[in-house]
Amino acid sequence: MTDPHPAPVAAYAALDPRAFRSSALTRGPWDPGHQHAGPPIALVCRAVEQAAHEHGLTHIARLTANLLRPVPIGDLIVEVMTDYVGRNAGHFSAHLMAGSKDVARFTALAQRESPVDLPEGLPGHPLPAAPRAPDASPAGEFPFKGRELGYAHLMETRVAQGTLWNGPCAVWFRMRHPLLEGEAPSPYQRVAVAADSGNGVSAVLDYQRYGFVNSDLTINLLRRPVGEWICLDARTALGGEGGGLAESALYDAHGLIGRATQSLAVRSRAS
Questions:
Q1: What does pTM read for this prediction?
Q2: In terms of Cα–Cα distance, which of 39, 89, 25, 96 is closest to 66?
Q3: N or C: which end of the chain has fewer CB atoms below 10 A?
C-alpha cells in the first residue's frame, strides 16, 4: 500500500521559479509551525547566486539576513533585486515572503573570482584548520531531535570540539537531504543552512527554560567553500539586558572560509 504521507525528500519543492513549498524537514526547535532559519536563508542564497551568476559574479562574499518574523512551514516566495553591479562586485537585496507578508529581508555582496598569486610567509597564513576533521569527529545529536521531522533530521552533525549546547563548541554539518528537490545544493547553500545554528550549538542556557533567538545572521566568506562538510566553531556571549551575540568561525575540510555572527534576543520562557 502506498504511504499517503511519505517522508519528504528535500527541504523544499519548487512550485515555480519564485515560489517554493516547505517540507517538515525545515521545522525548527522553537515552535512546531515555524522553520529553523537555516533552510530559508539557504533558499534565498540560492536565488542570489542565480542573480549574481547572470553578471559573471560567482563568489558570495557576504550574505546578511534580517529575520522580521518567524518563517512558517508553508509556501514561500523569493524576490531578488540587483542593486548595483560593477566590474568586480555586485550588490543584491532580496525579500522572503509568506503570503503577502515579508518574513525576512536580505542584502548580499557577490564578487568576480580571479586567481591571485599570494606571496609566501604572510602573517596568519596558511589559514587555520578546524579542530578536527569530520572523519575524526564523533557523531552528535541536537537535544530537540524527536520523532517529529525537522531540522535535526535534515542535518548530520559531528562534534569536533566541546559539547553540543554547552558553551563553546565546534561542530561539522552535512545535509542529509537536498535543499531543493531534484537539485544538489551549492557550497554556499551548505554554509547558509548550517551557519544559523551557531547560537544553538554554543548555547549556554537551557533552551527549555530560555529563548535565545537570533534576529539576524551575517555570513562573510573569504573564499569559495569546498565539499559537503561545513564546520562552525561557535561561541555565545550574553549581556545582562536581554541581548547576546553568537560568533562562529567557519571551516571546510581545507581550512578557514569565513565567519558568521548572530544578534540574540534572550528571554525567559516563563515570561
A1: 0.95
A2: 96
A3: N
